[in-house]
Amino acid sequence: MSRFQSEKLRALTPYTPGEQPRDMQYNKLNTNESPFAPSEKAIAAAAEAAKRLHLYNDPTSRALTDKLAALYGVESDEVIVTNGSDEVLDFAFQAFCDADVPAVFADITYGFYPVFAARSGLPYQLVPLREDFTLNIADYFDLGRALVVIANPNAPTGIALSRGEIEQILLHNRDNVVVVDEAYVDFGAESCVPLIKKYDNLLVTQTFSKSRSLAGGRLGFGIGCKSLIADLHTIRYSTNPYNVNTMTQAAGLGVLCDEDYTRRNCATVMANREWTVAELKKRGFETTDSKTNFVFAKHPSVSGEYLYTELKKRGVLVRHFTSERIRDYARITIGSREQMEALIKTIDEILE
After folding, report:
1. Closest alpha carbon to 232 in 166, 171, 147, 168
2. Would you list the DSSP string of 138-175?
3. CB 316 within 8 A of CB 27
4. Average pLDDT, stretch 147-164?
Protein backbone atom coordinates (compact mmCIF):
# COMPACT_ATOMS: atom_id res chain seq x y z
CA MET A 1 0.00 0.00 0.00
CA SER A 2 1.09 3.57 -0.59
CA ARG A 3 1.65 6.12 2.14
CA PHE A 4 -1.37 7.99 0.75
CA GLN A 5 -3.94 5.27 1.36
CA SER A 6 -6.85 6.36 3.55
CA GLU A 7 -7.08 5.01 7.08
CA LYS A 8 -10.38 3.26 6.44
CA LEU A 9 -8.75 1.09 3.76
CA ARG A 10 -5.63 0.12 5.68
CA ALA A 11 -7.41 -2.62 7.58
CA LEU A 12 -9.51 -3.80 4.63
CA THR A 13 -9.05 -7.42 3.53
CA PRO A 14 -10.28 -7.57 -0.06
CA TYR A 15 -12.26 -10.43 -1.55
CA THR A 16 -10.10 -13.17 -3.07
CA PRO A 17 -11.48 -14.38 -6.42
CA GLY A 18 -10.91 -17.92 -7.65
CA GLU A 19 -7.68 -18.70 -9.45
CA GLN A 20 -7.49 -17.91 -13.16
CA PRO A 21 -4.06 -19.44 -13.89
CA ARG A 22 -2.26 -19.15 -17.21
CA ASP A 23 0.70 -21.45 -16.54
CA MET A 24 -0.90 -24.55 -18.09
CA GLN A 25 -4.17 -26.02 -19.31
CA TYR A 26 -6.33 -27.11 -16.36
CA ASN A 27 -9.53 -29.03 -15.94
CA LYS A 28 -10.97 -25.89 -14.39
CA LEU A 29 -13.52 -26.69 -11.69
CA ASN A 30 -12.86 -23.87 -9.22
CA THR A 31 -14.94 -20.79 -10.06
CA ASN A 32 -18.43 -22.14 -10.82
CA GLU A 33 -18.38 -21.08 -14.45
CA SER A 34 -20.61 -22.80 -16.98
CA PRO A 35 -18.97 -25.51 -19.09
CA PHE A 36 -21.09 -24.33 -22.03
CA ALA A 37 -20.38 -21.48 -24.43
CA PRO A 38 -22.86 -18.60 -24.49
CA SER A 39 -25.93 -18.95 -26.66
CA GLU A 40 -25.27 -18.31 -30.34
CA LYS A 41 -27.94 -15.62 -30.13
CA ALA A 42 -25.94 -13.89 -27.39
CA ILE A 43 -22.72 -14.08 -29.39
CA ALA A 44 -24.36 -12.72 -32.55
CA ALA A 45 -26.05 -9.88 -30.66
CA ALA A 46 -22.80 -8.86 -28.94
CA ALA A 47 -20.93 -8.89 -32.26
CA GLU A 48 -23.54 -6.64 -33.84
CA ALA A 49 -23.45 -4.30 -30.84
CA ALA A 50 -19.67 -3.95 -31.19
CA LYS A 51 -20.32 -1.79 -34.26
CA ARG A 52 -21.79 0.87 -31.95
CA LEU A 53 -18.99 1.08 -29.42
CA HIS A 54 -18.15 4.63 -30.49
CA LEU A 55 -21.42 5.67 -28.81
CA TYR A 56 -22.33 5.55 -25.14
CA ASN A 57 -24.39 2.60 -24.02
CA ASP A 58 -28.00 3.01 -22.88
CA PRO A 59 -27.71 3.97 -19.17
CA THR A 60 -31.17 2.52 -18.49
CA SER A 61 -30.49 -0.86 -20.15
CA ARG A 62 -34.08 -0.45 -21.29
CA ALA A 63 -34.43 -3.37 -23.74
CA LEU A 64 -32.75 -5.79 -21.33
CA THR A 65 -34.76 -4.51 -18.36
CA ASP A 66 -38.04 -4.91 -20.24
CA LYS A 67 -37.11 -8.45 -21.30
CA LEU A 68 -36.21 -9.46 -17.76
CA ALA A 69 -39.45 -7.97 -16.44
CA ALA A 70 -41.49 -9.94 -18.97
CA LEU A 71 -39.61 -13.16 -18.23
CA TYR A 72 -40.05 -12.90 -14.45
CA GLY A 73 -43.59 -11.51 -14.47
CA VAL A 74 -42.82 -8.13 -12.91
CA GLU A 75 -42.85 -4.48 -13.97
CA SER A 76 -39.84 -2.86 -15.62
CA ASP A 77 -39.42 -0.42 -12.74
CA GLU A 78 -39.14 -3.41 -10.41
CA VAL A 79 -35.88 -4.44 -12.12
CA ILE A 80 -32.35 -3.01 -12.02
CA VAL A 81 -29.58 -4.26 -14.34
CA THR A 82 -26.02 -4.17 -13.03
CA ASN A 83 -22.39 -4.99 -13.75
CA GLY A 84 -22.59 -8.50 -12.30
CA SER A 85 -24.75 -9.32 -9.29
CA ASP A 86 -21.87 -8.13 -7.09
CA GLU A 87 -22.75 -4.58 -8.09
CA VAL A 88 -26.40 -4.78 -7.08
CA LEU A 89 -25.33 -6.37 -3.78
CA ASP A 90 -22.88 -3.53 -3.22
CA PHE A 91 -25.62 -1.00 -4.01
CA ALA A 92 -27.85 -2.66 -1.40
CA PHE A 93 -25.19 -2.38 1.32
CA GLN A 94 -24.73 1.29 0.47
CA ALA A 95 -28.46 2.05 0.24
CA PHE A 96 -29.81 0.17 3.25
CA CYS A 97 -26.96 0.11 5.83
CA ASP A 98 -25.42 2.84 7.94
CA ALA A 99 -23.73 3.20 11.33
CA ASP A 100 -27.02 2.33 13.07
CA VAL A 101 -28.23 -0.35 10.64
CA PRO A 102 -25.79 -3.28 10.46
CA ALA A 103 -25.77 -6.04 7.87
CA VAL A 104 -26.53 -9.56 9.11
CA PHE A 105 -25.42 -12.70 7.27
CA ALA A 106 -24.13 -16.22 7.90
CA ASP A 107 -20.63 -16.96 9.12
CA ILE A 108 -20.11 -19.31 6.18
CA THR A 109 -21.41 -17.69 3.01
CA TYR A 110 -20.31 -15.61 0.02
CA GLY A 111 -17.04 -13.95 1.00
CA PHE A 112 -17.86 -10.59 -0.56
CA TYR A 113 -20.51 -9.67 2.03
CA PRO A 114 -18.06 -8.70 4.79
CA VAL A 115 -15.94 -6.86 2.23
CA PHE A 116 -18.90 -4.74 1.09
CA ALA A 117 -19.55 -3.79 4.70
CA ALA A 118 -15.96 -3.23 5.77
CA ARG A 119 -15.07 -1.10 2.73
CA SER A 120 -17.79 1.39 3.62
CA GLY A 121 -17.14 1.22 7.36
CA LEU A 122 -20.50 -0.44 8.01
CA PRO A 123 -21.12 -2.70 11.02
CA TYR A 124 -22.07 -6.32 10.38
CA GLN A 125 -23.05 -9.37 12.39
CA LEU A 126 -22.23 -13.01 11.61
CA VAL A 127 -24.83 -15.67 12.36
CA PRO A 128 -23.32 -19.17 12.69
CA LEU A 129 -24.75 -21.94 10.56
CA ARG A 130 -25.60 -25.21 12.28
CA GLU A 131 -22.96 -27.94 12.46
CA ASP A 132 -24.35 -29.50 9.26
CA PHE A 133 -24.11 -26.07 7.54
CA THR A 134 -27.89 -25.60 7.38
CA LEU A 135 -29.30 -22.20 8.24
CA ASN A 136 -31.65 -21.92 11.22
CA ILE A 137 -34.27 -19.42 10.07
CA ALA A 138 -35.22 -18.59 13.67
CA ASP A 139 -31.79 -17.00 14.08
CA TYR A 140 -32.98 -14.31 11.66
CA PHE A 141 -36.27 -13.50 13.36
CA ASP A 142 -36.84 -10.10 14.96
CA LEU A 143 -33.31 -8.81 14.55
CA GLY A 144 -34.03 -5.16 15.22
CA ARG A 145 -32.87 -2.67 12.59
CA ALA A 146 -30.63 -4.49 10.13
CA LEU A 147 -30.03 -5.42 6.51
CA VAL A 148 -30.53 -9.19 6.24
CA VAL A 149 -28.51 -10.89 3.49
CA ILE A 150 -29.05 -14.55 2.61
CA ALA A 151 -27.38 -16.43 -0.22
CA ASN A 152 -29.95 -18.99 -1.36
CA PRO A 153 -28.66 -21.49 -2.30
CA ASN A 154 -25.73 -20.72 -0.07
CA ALA A 155 -22.12 -20.66 -1.20
CA PRO A 156 -19.87 -22.52 -0.66
CA THR A 157 -22.17 -25.09 1.00
CA GLY A 158 -24.71 -25.35 -1.84
CA ILE A 159 -27.63 -25.78 0.58
CA ALA A 160 -30.95 -24.05 -0.17
CA LEU A 161 -33.88 -22.85 1.90
CA SER A 162 -37.43 -23.23 0.59
CA ARG A 163 -39.46 -20.22 -0.47
CA GLY A 164 -41.66 -20.78 2.57
CA GLU A 165 -38.67 -20.56 4.90
CA ILE A 166 -37.53 -17.31 3.28
CA GLU A 167 -41.06 -15.97 3.69
CA GLN A 168 -40.89 -16.65 7.41
CA ILE A 169 -37.74 -14.53 7.61
CA LEU A 170 -39.52 -11.77 5.70
CA LEU A 171 -42.50 -11.91 8.04
CA HIS A 172 -40.23 -11.50 11.06
CA ASN A 173 -38.33 -8.55 9.52
CA ARG A 174 -41.07 -6.33 8.14
CA ASP A 175 -39.04 -3.19 8.92
CA ASN A 176 -35.79 -4.55 7.46
CA VAL A 177 -34.69 -5.05 3.88
CA VAL A 178 -34.04 -8.73 3.21
CA VAL A 179 -31.69 -9.46 0.30
CA VAL A 180 -31.91 -12.95 -1.18
CA ASP A 181 -28.87 -13.63 -3.36
CA GLU A 182 -29.99 -16.21 -5.94
CA ALA A 183 -26.80 -16.57 -7.95
CA TYR A 184 -27.30 -20.36 -8.14
CA VAL A 185 -31.09 -20.60 -8.09
CA ASP A 186 -31.40 -22.14 -11.57
CA PHE A 187 -29.89 -25.46 -10.47
CA GLY A 188 -32.74 -26.82 -8.39
CA ALA A 189 -33.79 -24.21 -5.80
CA GLU A 190 -36.98 -22.15 -5.52
CA SER A 191 -36.79 -18.50 -6.51
CA CYS A 192 -38.28 -15.88 -4.21
CA VAL A 193 -39.08 -13.46 -7.04
CA PRO A 194 -42.85 -14.16 -6.74
CA LEU A 195 -42.73 -12.85 -3.16
CA ILE A 196 -41.83 -9.29 -4.19
CA LYS A 197 -45.53 -8.61 -4.84
CA LYS A 198 -46.30 -9.40 -1.17
CA TYR A 199 -43.27 -7.92 0.58
CA ASP A 200 -41.95 -4.41 -0.02
CA ASN A 201 -38.82 -5.29 1.99
CA LEU A 202 -37.58 -8.06 -0.36
CA LEU A 203 -34.75 -7.62 -2.87
CA VAL A 204 -33.82 -10.64 -5.00
CA THR A 205 -30.53 -10.64 -6.91
CA GLN A 206 -29.47 -12.95 -9.73
CA THR A 207 -26.63 -13.26 -12.22
CA PHE A 208 -26.01 -14.29 -15.82
CA SER A 209 -22.63 -15.78 -14.83
CA LYS A 210 -23.70 -19.31 -13.92
CA SER A 211 -26.74 -20.68 -15.70
CA ARG A 212 -26.55 -18.29 -18.66
CA SER A 213 -22.84 -18.73 -19.48
CA LEU A 214 -21.91 -15.03 -19.29
CA ALA A 215 -19.40 -14.96 -16.44
CA GLY A 216 -17.01 -12.90 -18.57
CA GLY A 217 -19.77 -10.52 -19.62
CA ARG A 218 -20.36 -9.29 -16.03
CA LEU A 219 -24.13 -9.01 -15.94
CA GLY A 220 -26.52 -9.23 -13.00
CA PHE A 221 -29.86 -7.84 -11.90
CA GLY A 222 -32.06 -7.16 -8.92
CA ILE A 223 -35.83 -7.46 -8.55
CA GLY A 224 -37.84 -5.76 -5.83
CA CYS A 225 -40.64 -3.29 -5.25
CA LYS A 226 -40.44 -0.01 -7.15
CA SER A 227 -39.26 2.06 -4.20
CA LEU A 228 -36.39 -0.32 -3.36
CA ILE A 229 -35.25 -0.35 -6.98
CA ALA A 230 -35.43 3.46 -7.08
CA ASP A 231 -33.12 3.56 -4.05
CA LEU A 232 -30.62 1.38 -5.88
CA HIS A 233 -30.79 3.57 -8.98
CA THR A 234 -29.91 6.55 -6.78
CA ILE A 235 -26.66 4.79 -5.86
CA ARG A 236 -26.06 3.72 -9.47
CA TYR A 237 -26.53 7.22 -10.88
CA SER A 238 -24.22 8.53 -8.16
CA THR A 239 -21.40 6.15 -9.06
CA ASN A 240 -21.52 4.84 -12.64
CA PRO A 241 -24.69 5.46 -14.68
CA TYR A 242 -23.21 3.67 -17.70
CA ASN A 243 -22.57 0.55 -15.64
CA VAL A 244 -23.47 -2.15 -18.21
CA ASN A 245 -21.65 -1.84 -21.52
CA THR A 246 -23.26 -2.06 -24.96
CA MET A 247 -22.00 -5.53 -25.85
CA THR A 248 -22.99 -7.02 -22.49
CA GLN A 249 -26.50 -5.57 -22.74
CA ALA A 250 -26.84 -7.10 -26.19
CA ALA A 251 -25.46 -10.47 -25.10
CA GLY A 252 -27.82 -10.53 -22.13
CA LEU A 253 -30.80 -9.80 -24.34
CA GLY A 254 -29.66 -12.47 -26.79
CA VAL A 255 -29.40 -15.19 -24.16
CA LEU A 256 -32.82 -14.28 -22.74
CA CYS A 257 -34.20 -14.93 -26.21
CA ASP A 258 -32.80 -18.46 -25.97
CA GLU A 259 -34.24 -19.74 -22.69
CA ASP A 260 -34.54 -23.29 -24.05
CA TYR A 261 -30.75 -23.37 -24.41
CA THR A 262 -30.31 -22.17 -20.82
CA ARG A 263 -32.78 -24.71 -19.40
CA ARG A 264 -31.15 -27.61 -21.29
CA ASN A 265 -27.75 -26.61 -19.96
CA CYS A 266 -29.06 -26.39 -16.40
CA ALA A 267 -30.60 -29.84 -16.70
CA THR A 268 -27.29 -31.24 -17.94
CA VAL A 269 -25.37 -29.64 -15.08
CA MET A 270 -27.83 -31.04 -12.53
CA ALA A 271 -27.54 -34.52 -14.04
CA ASN A 272 -23.73 -34.27 -13.96
CA ARG A 273 -23.93 -33.08 -10.36
CA GLU A 274 -25.93 -36.12 -9.27
CA TRP A 275 -23.54 -38.43 -11.11
CA THR A 276 -20.52 -36.75 -9.48
CA VAL A 277 -22.04 -36.91 -5.99
CA ALA A 278 -22.76 -40.62 -6.43
CA GLU A 279 -19.20 -41.31 -7.60
CA LEU A 280 -17.70 -39.28 -4.74
CA LYS A 281 -19.81 -41.13 -2.18
CA LYS A 282 -18.63 -44.48 -3.58
CA ARG A 283 -15.13 -43.31 -2.68
CA GLY A 284 -16.01 -42.35 0.88
CA PHE A 285 -16.65 -38.63 0.42
CA GLU A 286 -19.30 -36.73 2.36
CA THR A 287 -21.20 -34.04 0.46
CA THR A 288 -23.80 -31.44 1.33
CA ASP A 289 -27.19 -31.43 -0.41
CA SER A 290 -26.23 -29.09 -3.24
CA LYS A 291 -28.79 -27.16 -5.28
CA THR A 292 -26.05 -25.36 -7.21
CA ASN A 293 -23.59 -25.99 -10.02
CA PHE A 294 -20.97 -27.19 -7.54
CA VAL A 295 -20.57 -29.78 -4.81
CA PHE A 296 -19.03 -29.28 -1.37
CA ALA A 297 -17.20 -32.43 -0.39
CA LYS A 298 -14.75 -33.84 2.12
CA HIS A 299 -13.01 -37.17 2.59
CA PRO A 300 -12.37 -38.71 6.03
CA SER A 301 -8.73 -39.52 5.31
CA VAL A 302 -7.67 -36.74 2.92
CA SER A 303 -7.63 -33.09 4.00
CA GLY A 304 -9.18 -30.43 1.84
CA GLU A 305 -5.82 -28.74 1.38
CA TYR A 306 -4.10 -31.98 0.38
CA LEU A 307 -6.86 -32.82 -2.12
CA TYR A 308 -6.70 -29.34 -3.63
CA THR A 309 -2.90 -29.43 -3.89
CA GLU A 310 -2.69 -32.90 -5.37
CA LEU A 311 -5.45 -32.23 -7.87
CA LYS A 312 -3.71 -29.04 -8.99
CA LYS A 313 -0.44 -30.92 -9.49
CA ARG A 314 -2.34 -33.21 -11.84
CA GLY A 315 -4.01 -30.41 -13.78
CA VAL A 316 -7.37 -30.20 -12.00
CA LEU A 317 -8.40 -26.98 -10.22
CA VAL A 318 -10.95 -26.95 -7.40
CA ARG A 319 -11.55 -24.34 -4.68
CA HIS A 320 -10.23 -24.72 -1.14
CA PHE A 321 -11.08 -22.42 1.76
CA THR A 322 -8.86 -22.01 4.80
CA SER A 323 -11.37 -20.92 7.45
CA GLU A 324 -11.59 -23.29 10.40
CA ARG A 325 -15.05 -24.79 9.90
CA ILE A 326 -14.67 -25.64 6.21
CA ARG A 327 -10.96 -26.24 5.67
CA ASP A 328 -11.50 -30.00 5.26
CA TYR A 329 -13.81 -29.41 2.28
CA ALA A 330 -13.24 -28.80 -1.40
CA ARG A 331 -15.74 -26.95 -3.56
CA ILE A 332 -15.94 -28.62 -6.96
CA THR A 333 -17.62 -26.91 -9.90
CA ILE A 334 -19.80 -29.16 -12.03
CA GLY A 335 -18.58 -29.17 -15.62
CA SER A 336 -19.23 -31.42 -18.58
CA ARG A 337 -19.49 -35.19 -18.07
CA GLU A 338 -16.01 -35.54 -19.57
CA GLN A 339 -14.61 -33.05 -17.07
CA MET A 340 -16.25 -34.85 -14.17
CA GLU A 341 -15.05 -38.26 -15.32
CA ALA A 342 -11.53 -36.86 -15.52
CA LEU A 343 -11.90 -35.46 -12.00
CA ILE A 344 -12.99 -38.82 -10.58
CA LYS A 345 -10.15 -40.61 -12.37
CA THR A 346 -7.66 -38.14 -10.87
CA ILE A 347 -9.17 -38.52 -7.39
CA ASP A 348 -8.73 -42.29 -7.71
CA GLU A 349 -5.03 -41.75 -8.42
CA ILE A 350 -4.73 -39.58 -5.31
CA LEU A 351 -6.62 -41.97 -3.04
CA GLU A 352 -4.47 -44.87 -4.20
Report:
1. 147
2. GGGSS-SS-EEEEESS-TTT-----HHHHHHHHHTTTT
3. yes
4. 98
Q: Which helix (H) or strand (E) holds 342?
A: helix 337-351
Measuring CA to CA, how many Å separate 142 from each of 123, 138, 146, 148, 170? 18, 9, 10, 11, 10
* 40-257 CATH, one of 3.40.640.10, 3.40.190.100, 3.40.50.720, 2.10.109.10: 3.40.640.10
Alpha carbons 187 and 153: distance in angstroms, whole number:
9
For residue 63, which phi and psi values (nearest 5 degrees)? Answer: -65, -40
The domain spans of the chain are: 17-37+260-351, 40-257
Rounded CA-CA distance 6/13 in Å is 14
Positive/negative CA dihedral, 302, 352, 30, 205 = negative
- Provide the H-helix boundaries in 35-98: 40-49, 62-72, 84-96
Length of the chain: 352
Q: List, in order, residues 6 or more apart from 40 with CB less than 8 Å away.
A: 258
Among 70, 72, 69, smallest CA distance to 194 is for: 72
Where is 204: in which H helix or E strand?
A: strand 202-207
Cα 17-13-153 angle, rounded to 5 deg: 50
Element containing residue 286 per DSSP (H, E): strand 286-287
What residues contact residue 4 under an 8 Å CB cut-off, 6+ apart?
none
Q: Do 334 and 273 meet the contact criterion of CB atoms below 8 Å apart?
A: yes
Express each pLDDT in 55-114 by its tens digit.
999 999 999 999 999 999 999 999 999 999 999 999 999 999 999 999 999 999 999 999
Considering the domain delimited by 17-37+260-351, tell me its CATH architecture.
Answer: Alpha-Beta Complex (3.90)
- Selection from 171, 209, 172 nearest residue 292 by Cα: 209
What is the pTM (predicted TM-score) of this model? 0.95
Query: Which residues make beta-bridge pairs with 104?
Result: 125, 148
